[in-house]
Structure prediction request, 273 residues.
Amino acid sequence: MSGLDAPSIALVGAGAMGGALVRGWIEAVRKGGGLTLTVVEPHFDPILERDLDAVGAVLNPPEPGPVDMIVLAVKPQTFPSTVEATRKFVGPGTRVMSIMAGIPIESVQRALGVQRVIRCVPNTPARIGRGVTAYVCAAECTAEDRQLVEQLLEPLGTVEPIAAERLMDVVTAVSGSGPAYVFLLAEVLAAAAEQEGLDRDTAMRLASRTVAGAGALMLETGETAGELRKQVTSPGGTTEAALDVLGGNGGLAPLLRHAVSAAAARSRELGRG
Ligand SMILES: NC(=O)c1ccc[n+]([C@@H]2O[C@H](COP(=O)([O-])OP(=O)(O)OC[C@H]3O[C@@H](n4cnc5c(N)ncnc54)[C@H](OP(=O)(O)O)[C@@H]3O)[C@@H](O)[C@H]2O)c1
Prediction:
């Protein structure tokens, strides 16, 4: 890992997302990346704990000291109870990267007394390194802070800088919540297949492999969703018959427009709370 020379990182919360991050950092340390790790977590996964020990990470230190970057990966509702302990990692040069859903930059700045805060929205495919994480930096952040954040987010998949924090509600509604829309698509496709006569297990296998395969095809060919859709759609064929229904009034486009708008509104509401 380049950027800051041997940055010190304190991860608070090594659950699903924090665990995915730190597993990637362990690999970076093994490959000789200059990185010193401290992890605070009440219930370590035993394999993760062993791997962290093996790279010399400090776990649940009784007397924490300042680090270059604090990474907050606890649940948003847990955050208030972690503030006092997390403040012990704060020094004059400390930045904070938060992946907590819905917590504005200003709330983190106020709680920890740190100005250089980066807010990130990952999504669940991050657990297998195939996610997309959007991030936005406080005005006080430097180019070096951005570089370090992008390097630290690498284990989760690709990274997208976002220009303004107000757009994080839309990001949450699209990529943050988006995997659930795709899983629902697989579920309802399977249910429709079952209604047409397939048994439940076959229907679910066909639907989930179709969703997974279509996603992989889009990623691996680099062709756009629109191009790939046209390739499957012959004039007067079966796909066109289905797309006429999905593209009609009350079809997929207005429905998703409504869904994304509802999710963004809820994200704004939670942010105010
Ligand atoms: N999963 C997603 O799709 C997703 C997407 C975008 C953003 N996020 C955000 O990512 C964050 C983490 O989500 P997650 O799914 O990884 O949650 P998670 O699996 O519950 O991880 C949170 C971890 O923090 C630990 N923890 C609890 N209290 C703590 C404390 N006082 N100090 C240190 N660690 C503590 C928890 O331990 P215990 O389990 O023992 O309590 C748990 O291991 C959340 O803020 C969420 O909003 C998640």
In short: The pocket of NAP is lined by residues 12-18, 40-43, 73-76, 78, 81-82, 99-101, 121-124, 176 (CB under 6 Å). The CA atoms of residues 65 and 236 lie 68 Å apart.
